[in-house]
Amino acid sequence: MGKEKTHINIVLIGHVDSGKSTTTGHLIYKCGGIDKRTTEKFEKEAAKMGKGSLKYAWVLDKLKVEHERGVTIDISLWKFETSKYYVTITDAPGHRDFIKNMITGTSQADCAILIVAAGVDKFEAGISKNGQTREHALLAYTLGMKQLIVGVNKMDSTEPPYSQKRYEEIVKEVSTYIKKIGYNPDTVAFVPISGWNGDNMQEPSACLGSRDGRSLVKMPMLVEPHCLKLWIASCHPLAQLTSLCDCPSRMSTKLVVSVQSLWAEWRLVFSNLAW
């Protein structure tokens, strides 16, 4: 009997409309988590509402209000396999109104994938003070996400499409920021992708290759082509990094009760418990 695969939890975070749900849904499809018939069903349903581009997003966005508004409100989970791990992937909302849901999903993960949109003005909107790219990255680090992958999404919408110059500009600016909050940019994988077209999702894309034929996706000292699925497969679950028996208890608890028509909500993330 072969060695049983280890389980790893991954969360996708980032500014609203950066393409997190579409990227997650398309990756699940490419990994065999759903079949073509299901995606075609989502495509028809989305088209009826004038939102045909959300067919992959609807793999995870199940609420009626999410379909109507076209944004993720609550966290959604899905499981699939890589060559090394059983993966539970969590799609977190990017809108600032639902930041507490993002925190709930992130607190349970071993690794975070920060999605940034490369389209014209899209990256700038996310990285600005009013955007959520900075806040999500900071929250991820604060909640213990020491492993970070940055997915530079919507590369097909740059000017010109799949612009290496635009990609390098984004890598430089994001690297500068994540270094300030505690990450080492040299250990962070930057992956140029198109969540809609599927470029660099499961295998290296010809559209994102450099002039010598190599993929743009690489970390220092590595020049072989890689893609988002391969970077996920290179992550390490929290259980392999530390001895959980010696660590403080960590949990995410949410409870809503009604007391004389008043609503109270509490959440505990990171706490030392005494028995």
UniProtKB/TrEMBL annotation:
Superkingdom, taxonomy of origin: Eukaryota
Alphabetized CDD domains for the sequence: EF1_alpha (cd01883)
One MF annotation (Gene Ontology) recorded for this entry: translation elongation factor activity
The Tr-type G domain, residue ranges: 5-226
Protein name stated in the entry: Elongation factor 1-alpha 1
Catalytic reaction annotation: GTP + H2O = GDP + phosphate + H(+)
UniProt cross-references to Pfam families, sorted A to Z: GTP_EFTU (PF00009)
Keyword list, A-Z: Elongation factor, GTP-binding, Nucleotide-binding, Protein biosynthesis
